[in-house]
Design brief:
Length: about 190
């Protein structure tokens, strides 16, 4: 789980935005903890102490990306490395972020089922965009470890379209990056 960004456009740590009685990061942690993973890794960076003081990480191990300013790829690489240390024969990794308030246990279960049955990449789609959460089989770990900058895993998703299954993620495009996004979240009634 990647939660290392500074939220500079928002002006406050988006991981700690309150929604439905808890902060966004806690919601994402709690959702993931409803499932059983061999290893659960949380990567924090900017505001790490503040963020960690406001969440209960349960089964997650947390690591601070001291190079978070280099972009999302540095957090992704650190998460994969720590996952492989924890479980050397890891066969897949599920990558999630902390600012998608509508990630659910059911969505993650659907992704895992698709991976087990037919695909080596399972990607979410929303508004004709493919993105996180995304699940990669181990044959993509080396490519993920080669990523740089703020590109995240988009390059690998685009390079391997024929190897992926898609899960439709209603409201997956809703993430919190700006004060306007926060206003929309605060107006959400469901």
């Amino acid at each position: 789980m990647l939660a290392a960004g500074a939220s500079s456009r928002l002006g406050q740590p988006k991981q700690l935005i309150q929604f439905r009685g808890k902060n966004l990061l806690q919601h994402t942690i709690d959702t993931a903890n409803e499932l059983e993973f061999e290893s659960s890794i949380l990567i924090v960076g900017a505001n790490a102490d503040q963020v960690l003081s406001k969440v209960t990480i349960n089964s997650f191990q947390s690591f601070t990306n001291e190079n978070w300013e280099q972009g999302m790829a540095s957090s992704l690489r650190l998460g994969i490395k720590k996952s492989l240390i924890s479980v050397p024969d890891l066969n897949a990794i599920l990558i999630s972020v902390s600012d998608q308030p509508f990630v659910s246990k059911e969505l993650l279960q659907e992704m895992i089922q698709l991976y087990r049955s037919e695909s080596s990449i399972v990607v979410c789609e929303y508004d004709n965009v493919k993105g996180v959460p995304v699940l990669f089989g181990s044959k993509y770990f080396n490519e993920l470890l080669m990523l740089n900058g703020d590109q995240g895993a988009q390059k690998i998703i685009k390079d391997h379209e024929k190897m992926q299954s898609i899960v439709m993620f209603d409201h997956g495009n809703f993430d919190i990056d700006t004060p306007e996004d926060l206003e929309r979240l605060n107006k959400w009634k469901n």
